[in-house]
Design a protein that fits this description.
By secondary structure, this protein is mainly β. 11% of the residues lie in helices and 50% in strands. The protein is built from 1 helix and 9 strands, in the order H-E-E-E-E-E-E-E-E-E. Strands 1, 2, 3, 4, 5, 6, 7, 8 and 9 form a 9-stranded antiparallel β-sheet that branches. Strand 4 and strand 5 form a beta hairpin. The chain starts with 7 loop residues before the first helix and ends with a strand.
């Protein structure tokens, strides 16, 4: 029975392939979760938890907030949301979507994943949130900075 040996060229080739794969893997979003406070005018105010993910240039942010509670049961995928974020300290970008879990009456509104596009190194911090539920629009403005800081993709 012959035992195979790996030559130096084979080992080197495998090492280069692994390093290339690791170099192409997207870096994780940091931080991946942040909190922020919102004022939604007559609809209330409170904190929100934002969770970000990235796959190449596509990114998503899911949001749960105590700033808006539902007075009635809301069905899944019936909340339309747009999250506006400050991009790299000067411009803005938007993440939007119509995805949400079913929300029982009296519960905090959760929305997302909201979809957006990012580039490597983008620094995004929530600025405002617009939520449309049953034709009623609530606009929430950030009253604090994201903690522990902006999302860096």
């Amino acid at each position: 029975m012959r035992h195979g040996k790996l030559g130096t060229g084979t080992v080197l080739g495998v090492g280069i392939a692994i390093a290339g794969t690791l170099a192409m893997a997207p870096a994780p979003v940091t931080p991946d979760t942040a909190t922020i406070s919102f004022d939604c005018g007559t609809y209330g105010s409170g904190t929100a938890t934002l969770t970000a993910t990235q796959d190449g240039t596509a990114a998503t942010i899911s949001l749960s907030t105590s700033a808006i509670t539902s007075p009635i049961d809301i069905g899944a995928n019936s909340v339309t949301s747009t999250l506006t974020l400050t991009k790299n300290g000067s411009g803005t970008t938007e993440f939007s979507g119509s995805s949400n879990p079913a929300i029982p009456a009296g519960s905090a509104v959760s929305t997302g994943p909201l979809s957006g596009t990012v580039a490597a190194g983008d620094s995004l911090e929530a600025k405002s949130l617009q939520v449309v539920v049953l034709g009623v629009t609530a606009t929430c403005n950030a009253t604090s900075a994201q903690s522990p800081g902006p999302f860096v993709f």
